[in-house]
Amino acid sequence: MSETAPVSTPVSTPGGQPRVGIVMGSDSDWPTMMAAAEALKEFGIAYEADVVSAHRMPEEMVAYGREAHGRGLEVIIAGAGGAAHLPGMLASLTPLPVIGVPVPLKYLDGMDSLLSIVQMPAGVPVATVSIGNARNAGLLAARILATGDAELTQKMLDFQVSLRDAAHAKGASVRE
Ligand code: RP5
């Protein structure tokens, strides 16, 4: 998907039932959120992506949260910036694990988004990744799905080996 592609209509990876729902408050979040989609693609995980604004389309947000589990989704990744209520509201509406991505905006460097998402009341968890780190959200979703999927677990182990090898290679270049 291109960086400028709007996501006002749902997009899905080919290959069947999406397992992960990626949602965001605005299409302006997509340049950040697309890293989650890229990570899922690397692991061959089917996903859907859409704009579901907590403030501009609250009825649609409630419907998304209520219907996600019944539609077969297994994890939700939700990103928003500023007064970032989307991940927490979705977590209140669904039994699925919700991963929140604080999207950095022009002002406050994403600290507003981070604090809006991470400070959830007891009983309504959101697994919050670092500011702008949608890639980690995609990787965490892959790990959650891997708990019941041996093939995916092996892919994650292979990925971790690739990280280690890349780190070793960097060390070698410094030691030369
Ligand atoms: C939030 O407002 C969105 O998640 C986005 O990060 C921010 C700005 O949205 P736009 O004005 O760019 O549509 O709800």
From TrEMBL:
It comes from the Bacteria. Residues 18-167 form the PurE domain. It catalyses: 5-carboxyamino-1-(5-phospho-D-ribosyl)imidazole + H(+) = 5-amino-1-(5-phospho-D-ribosyl)imidazole-4-carboxylate. It is an enzyme of class 5 (isomerase). Pfam families: AIRC (PF00731). Pathway: Purine metabolism; IMP biosynthesis via de novo pathway; 5-amino-1-(5-phospho-D-ribosyl)imidazole-4-carboxylate from 5-amino-1-(5-phospho-D-ribosyl)imidazole (N5-CAIR route): step 2/2. Keywords: Isomerase, Purine biosynthesis. Catalyzes the conversion of N5-carboxyaminoimidazole ribonucleotide (N5-CAIR) to 4-carboxy-5-aminoimidazole ribonucleotide (CAIR). This is N5-carboxyaminoimidazole ribonucleotide mutase. The gene is purE.
